[in-house]
Design brief:
GO terms for molecular function: 4-hydroxy-tetrahydrodipicolinate synthase activity. Keywords: Lyase, Schiff base. It holds the Pfam family DHDPS. This protein is an alpha/beta fold. The chain has a single domain, classed as Alpha-Beta Barrel (TIM Barrel). It has twelve helices and eight strands. An eight-stranded parallel sheet has the order 7-6-5-4-3-2-1-8. Helix 7 links the parallel strand 6 and strand 7. The longest helix is centred in the C-terminal third of the chain and has 16 residues. The relative contact order is 0.13. The model has no long low-confidence stretch (mean pLDDT 97).
Length: 291
Amino acid sequence: MDLSGVHVPLITPFDSSGVVDTKSIAHLVEVMLANGLSGIVAAGTTGEAYALSFEERQTVIDTIRKQVNGRVPVLAGVGGMSTKEAVKQAQLAVELKCDGLMVAAPAYVLPTATELATHVTTVIAAAKIPTVLYDYPARTGVPFDEETLDLLADNEFVIGIKEASGDLDRIPMLTKRYAKRIEIVCGADADSPTFANAGVTSWIGGMANALPKAHFGIMNPDTREAAHAAVLPLLTHIESGRYIAKTKALMGLLGVPCAATRGPLAQLEADGVDTLHDLVAQAGEWAPSLV
């Protein structure tokens, strides 16, 4: 599977009753593709997958995959807190004909390096499709460290790692130690130029829901500096907290209303939306309307 370009972990829209809005999901897919996104992650962190029932997860992934209809790769997020649950999620992705998985460490569990590698290996064996590891220890509590990656690097289905640890010193280590075995995928917003300058050609970014033009601008060396400078205040503000609520509110400002979140997250308040509006104005051409 080709991981190059910008892939978006699609947000999940809810209607006024808090129900997954499949019509809006289909519309969002078309908006993302019209803006040039290279792939979609269904039921990822930005998609509030942790707050979905298994049946809702199935609905979300199935709606996205059918709407995409082979035009770009679709990865299904896997974030089960037990191996049994994660295997069930991975098998669902296969049943729904997804192109691959994005597998996170099980949150709250705190497995050892060997236990984490065994967990991931078991999940992959149940699906046997290309898999991107998702390293986000701030959310899961454990990293995909060298001991774990050494046990996974030669698995034929492990194709990449979304690096969202916040430790930029890992980039040269990953590049050297796992060259031609595990592709590095940018998992940062504000620090994305560091990845691009290191030769990383793939980015799975939650903010690509709202700022696809800026993401592609940052990936392009000719526009990297200008694009990053324009949206850095916006990226920094959103990364400072309430990421999903701010991302959804920002999308509304850019023409795609989808502000509702699922508890315990709350929808962004009016003053927060005003702040985003000001930051969008500062970003200028790099934060255009999505439609």
